């Protein structure tokens, strides 16, 4: 089969054998939204040379404005419920003719008054549960970080923090950006300065006041321009993690090594046990949902 995680900015695809092992991997800088009828042709082109007929997709490809909207499944959502709610996409007469294509629904948490959602991360959690059935707390760092609580093998709750997007906005488009090197220059991560930002997030004043400190520390030569991005990152991640306290340890982190290492450092500073898992859990989860 072919497992595909197609988000708002990129596509990742895995070719899996009958046992679910990854045989080949592809990645493309191609967003899932706004293609309409051309979506099937774009996907067929991205998968050229792979002749497997079973396709299972997750992510923004199933959102409104994606290939085919797969309605959100409310919490608590079990892997079995997700599998039963797969959305079939007709391929007859398209570039994918002869293949079966289905999309995993997203998951809806929060409350009626203030809902919270995720798309794509649910498949990584299915993959995690196949390996760690007793997992209770999951953090998926990113542009919109997801905090997911698990109970009895089901997704019980979702909480989103716009940490990555906030970092990008402050780093590139705010007054704070003037005191930092251009984003075109290579960024050298300073772990000690990042830790200072995490520690500052626990002091009085609140996030909005702490953010202004990025400028004043630079103004009085206590924070070099090259150090400011790491300090900003520490502040934002520190506030994000502290907002989730108390946590049910160990926290299972799912993500890439760079961002995952930052969150692990923040957890260590706060005395929280954590385990880091790779993003390929999405392929594992999609295999289990197909099976």
UniProtKB/TrEMBL annotation:
InterPro entries with a match to the protein in the record: DGOK, DGOK_C, DGOK_N
Pfam family membership, one: DGOK
Superkingdom, taxonomy of origin: Bacteria
Protein name: 2-dehydro-3-deoxygalactonokinase
Species per Swiss-Prot/TrEMBL record: Pseudoxanthomonas winnipegensis
